[in-house]
Sequence to fold (187 residues):
Amino acid sequence: MPRIARISSLLVALALLSPGFALAGPAESTRKLIETFKATGPKQAAALDKLFDFDGFTAAAVDSVKDKLSPEQLKSVRADIVGIVRARAYPRGGELFVEGKVTEGAVGKQGALQTFDISIYFAKQDLTMDLQFAFDAKGRVVDVSFDDDSLTKDFRVQLARFLSKKTPAELVAKLSDKRKEAEKAAK
Fold:
């Protein structure tokens, strides 16, 4: 499944962390999230932003390289990561839940985070995608894993690999370009 479809799954996590959803328990929260996700229209970005802890997400994503970046570069990198995720995932929000059949999994713990697993089966492709959402204490999504691949870990590895070969200024320029490409493609 294309990376964009995986990132779309991230949006599920956003709603799961909503305080209103969290009170109902993970299974009911997931059901409400999926229905909300399918129904979200033009105000999708603002609604989804409220359900996701972008500060926590980007802090974890840049953790391995933050000492190599100036404060301005760090701010730019974090903003571009958020922009890329929004542009690639938000426009395709409910596709996973319309096209796939969701099976709920288990609630778990990952350090201080609570996790919830779901599987989505796509009959046309005879493919299953496993998702795990990680929530902070406030009930906001801080990470999503796709088939055991953490989105924050993926960013950490890619950023560290890039900076092992190139400069922080080149990283800032590359992410800015990627964000612009993603935003253009989303229109």
Notes: DSSP finds nine helices and five strands in the chain. Residues 71-89 form the longest helix (19 residues).
